[in-house]
Amino acid sequence: MMLFQLVTHQPQAVGRILQGTPAWVWGLLAALMALGLSQTLARQASTARVLALPAAMSVLSLVGVVSAFSSSGRLGATLVAWLASAAAVMFVLRHLKPARHARFDPQARRFHLPGSWLPLVLIAAIFSLKYMVGIELALQPQTAQQPTFALTVCAVYGALTGIFAARALALWRMTTASH
Questions:
Q1: In sequence order, what DSSP letters do the residues of 32-69 get, joined into one string?
Q2: Where in the chain are the domains?
Q3: 86, 169 in Cβ contact below 8 A?
Q4: Residues 41-63: tens digit of each pLDDT
Q5: Which residues is 104 bridged to in the sheet?
Q6: Which run of H or E residues covers position 85?
Q7: What is the pTM of this model?
């Protein structure tokens, strides 16, 4: 990867890359980190709010695939790789239990959730992947044509999406178990 070579052989380039990053990207990072940090605290949330984060991160993951590979002529294959990876991870984690001490109050239709660092880690991973892939493709646009690169990136995006989805499914099952 060009980015790895650049960082190891010309570390001063990192500063130029960071300076060349649009301000809105840093704003997005700050907002995502705030959202992730909010997940580390115990909280109460509606079903819609509990499902909003996995949905939003799935969209960000999918946008990463589309923005990186839409002009490569491999969009169909990369979308299939993303979806297959997400489905495989969801299948593997299909029996995932909700976090210990998580509970659902059917009368109030609210979850009582303990804090977790996992959403922050997953959010940071999706953002970092999108950022690094964006830099790599800016440095070497032809990298998007490499099947190994494209499918690996999409599989990682899909796996992160699958983890978010499996966690949401575990919580969703709490709502149906209370009926």
A1: HHHHHHHTTS-EEEEHHHHHHHHHHHHHHHHHHHHHHH
A2: 2-177
A3: no
A4: 999 999 999 999 999 999 999 99
A5: 111
A6: helix 75-92
A7: 0.89
Average pLDDT over residues 106-123: 96
Phi, psi of 41 (to 5 degrees): -100, 145
Q: What are phi and psi of 42, to 5 degrees?
A: -65, 140
Contact 144, 72 (CB under 8 A): yes
Q: What's the CA gap between 156 and 124, in Å, rounded? A: 13
User: Which residue has 């294959």 as its token pair?
Assistant: 77
Cβ burial, residue 132 (10 Å; 0-12/13-18/19+)? middle
Rounded average pLDDT over 88-109: 94
Which of helix, strand or coil describes residue 116? coil
- Of the chain, the end-to-end C-alpha distance in Å amounts to 52
C-alpha 168/C-alpha 63 separation (Å) is 20
- For position 77, what pLDDT does the model report? 93
The backbone torsions φ and ψ at residue 63, rounded to the nearest 5 degrees and listed phi first, read -60, -35
For residue range 120-161, list pLDDT tens digits in order.
999 999 999 999 999 999 989 999 999 999 999 999 999 999
Q: Would strands 43-46 and 110-113 be described as parallel, antiparallel, or unpaired?
A: antiparallel
- Provide the greatest CA pair distance for the chain: 60
Q: What is the DSSP letter of 97?
A: P
Do the beta carbons of residue 115 and residue 40 sit within 8 Å?
A: yes
